[in-house]
Amino acid sequence: MTAPFLSIRNLGVTFTGGTRPVRAVNDVSLDVAQGEAVALIGESGSGKSVTMRAVMRLNPEKRSKLQGQILVGGRDVMAMNTRQLSAFRGGEAAMIFQEPLLALDPVYTLGDQIVETIRRHEPISRDDARARALELFDRVRIPSAKSRLDNYPHEMSGGMRQRAMIALALSCRPKLLLADEPTTALDATVQIQVLLLLRELQRDLGLSIIFVTHDIGAAVEVADRIAVMYAGQIVEQATARDLIRNPRHPYTLGLLKSRAHDAMVKGTKLDAIPGAPPDLANLPDGCPFAPRCFLADAGCRAGQIGMEQITAGHHARCRRLDQTALQDAG
Ligand SMILES: Nc1ncnc2c1ncn2[C@@H]1O[C@H](COP(=O)(O)OP(=O)(O)OP(=O)(O)O)[C@@H](O)[C@H]1O
Ligand SMILES: [Mg+2]
Hints:
Layout: E1 6-15, E2 22-32, E3 37-41, H1 48-56, E4 64-72, E5 75-76, H2 82-88, E6 93-96, H3 100-103, H4 110-121, H5 126-139, H6 145-148, H7 158-170, E7 176-180, H8 188-205, E8 208-213, H9 216-222, E9 225-230, E10 233-239, H10 240-245, H11 250-265, E11 308-311, E12 314-316, H12 321-324
Parallel strand pairs: 3-8, 3-9, 6-7, 7-8
Antiparallel strand pairs: 1-2, 1-4, 4-5, 9-10, 10-12, 11-12
Helix pairs in contact: 4-5, 5-7, 7-8
The structure holds adenosine-5'-triphosphate and magnesium ion.
Residues 15, 17, 22, 24, 42, 44-50, 60, 280 line the site of adenosine-5'-triphosphate (ATP).
């Protein structure tokens, strides 16, 4: 087996700026092969964005403590100096955000932002960079690409702005793309178009990609594999197909049940499990899901719960897997 392009090993991120340390990410290990699409799902506050930002070293480093290892293309991200980091960000690895208006500079046209980004990373003429910007706008299917390059971010609709953001992220031909809820701010139909575009680009360009999403349906649509996060931990990881057909962590079961229920009532949000996630500044002993879990026993409320293998490539962090084999997610 070839080495994964992105390898996150035992990542911990603890924020230390407040009165108590906040354990936002706790022992997360995740691999993404070259050309593979992985979705990261979980409730609000489960640590998805902090994990993504850790890969780009975008968490406030003076106010946080990092543990573990992150390798991208075999290079140790935690060991990079400022110069290496700025070549890495937007170069080898790029991130797209939920709200492009926050990531785009309001005072420059989109064309200029792409040209500047390319020229920061590569010795290339302005004309050549401009030609690549146009190519990218065509590639993300922005109509009238040539004139749209001269637009300011606020002159575009949300969907077109997200496409421009994707073009900007791809401008230095990254190998790894981190898409942090790139479609949640958009209308449902525009969301699907942008997701399908990302999936297509990922296949055409052979990108390794992590999609962060609240929507299991979207995750299944765009990802080869799915990792489920809860309270800073990955609690289950499997191929999209295995996760849907044979979910084994009680939290994943809950997500799928609430989705089946919600789909009949309203949208498909992942928020209908009774109870609330734990306070990350005051985590309970044992499994953090135990207080909400229908299967938890005394053993679940003590010590560290490790990842168990179910089949090759399917893992869950639960000591009651013998019980969940009997459950039906429907
Ligand atoms: N800079 C920071 N300082 C202190 N705490 C932080 C910081 N950034 C994130 N956190 C905390 O870390 C936890 C995880 O946050 P994160 O943004 O990763 O959640 P998320 O899974 O992306 O949620 P959402 O789905 O709402 O985007 C939260 O409790 C959050 O308040
Ligand atoms: Mg987030």
